[in-house]
Amino acid sequence: MSATIKDVANEAGLSVATVSRVLNNSANVSEEAAEKVNQAIEKLGYSPNFLGRNLRKRETNVILVLMPTSEHSFYMKIVAGIQSFAQPRGYDIICASSNSTSEIEVRQMNMLFNRTVDGVILLGTSYDAETLNKLSKTYNIALCCEGVENAEVLTVVVDDEQAAYDAVKELIRLGHRRIGFVGANDSSASSCNRRQGYMRALGEFLGEVSEELMYIESFEYDCGARALDYFMGLDEPPTAVFCVSDLLAIAVIHKAHDLGLKVGEDISVMGFDNISMCEMMLPTVSTVEQPCGKLGEVVVRKLISNIGASTGAKDNGYYTVPHRVILRDSTGYVKK
């Protein structure tokens, strides 16, 4: 027989009312109680029956996750975090890719506009802050891993500026004084903030930022190769390169190999994201880890709470989760 809410309450050592409040993401539940209920749900394989509630509230218990591409393991790890939290609470997840095209994104957002889904999590968006602010007054929207400046919408990200600062500080600790930057010339908050973190670290520890050491083009893979070609053409090339994504860092590493440079010795390379390929590469890639599972869990937990809240009680806060700098073979002490 299937487990009941009473079984969950008995397993957790709590009242049925408390379990119900946890399932409905009520604010007046302690973290300890929520953890006990979650453990009991997982142990018993409990699946809440939300059908009656859905009919009364006209909810679908479906959330749309819209991402720029489905080919990036980084996004799929976030989706896994979203699913692991949402599904035990009776929510299904639909994933779609916009291919970074605004027309496709708008068409897919119709699932939200026509109430096919209860809410949407955007892992990057072409919408500007003004549009997002208008939409959030009527619909349940959340941004994850990529914020939008001035958007008063529920947002869950890492602190990109601080993360880049910490990464560049590690390169400086390894003795590097000429550190190149490879970024994207777009309006994304993450790229801009990572550049600010790079500049802050250089300014604080080295006293100056050299414009010639910044190569800004796009997130496309080929940009990394062109960046290293540019750097190696300078009178004094950098001894280390910080990239705003792992894909760019991997491109730099491949180009360095083509040029006969030994990565980690002749030149150090640092990426950002900690995608799966970082550990599969030779050399393995130093990077900033974004905790994908945690990003997904936090954003969907808060979005589900917003779905059940009245309009005036919605949480449109800006939240950050901890990052971690991981040093691997692609970075080493500067050559004397």
Explain this structure to me?
- The protein has 336 residues and is α/β, with parallel strands linked by helices.
- The chain has 3 domains: 48 residues, 434 Repressor (Amino-terminal Domain); 132 residues, Response regulator (Rossmann fold), CATH 3.40.50; 131 residues, Response regulator (Rossmann fold, 3-Layer(aba) Sandwich).
- The chain has 13 helices and 12 strands.
- Strand 6, helix 9 and strand 7 form a beta-alpha-beta unit.
What keyword list fits this structure?
single chain, 336 residues, alpha/beta, Rossmann fold, six-stranded parallel β-sheet, 16% strand
Question: How are the elements arranged and paired?
Answer:
Layout: H1 5-12, H2 16-23, H3 31-44, H4 51-57, E1 62-67, H5 73-86, E2 92-97, H6 102-113, E3 119-122, H7 129-136, E4 140-144, E5 154-158, H8 160-173, E6 179-184, H9 189-205, E7 214-217, H10 221-232, E8 240-243, H11 246-258, E9 268-270, H12 277-280, E10 287-289, H13 292-307, E11 318-321, E12 324-326
Parallel strand pairs: 1-2, 1-3, 3-4, 4-5, 5-11, 6-7, 6-8, 8-9
Antiparallel strand pairs: 10-12
Helix pairs in contact: 1-2, 1-3, 5-13, 8-9, 10-11
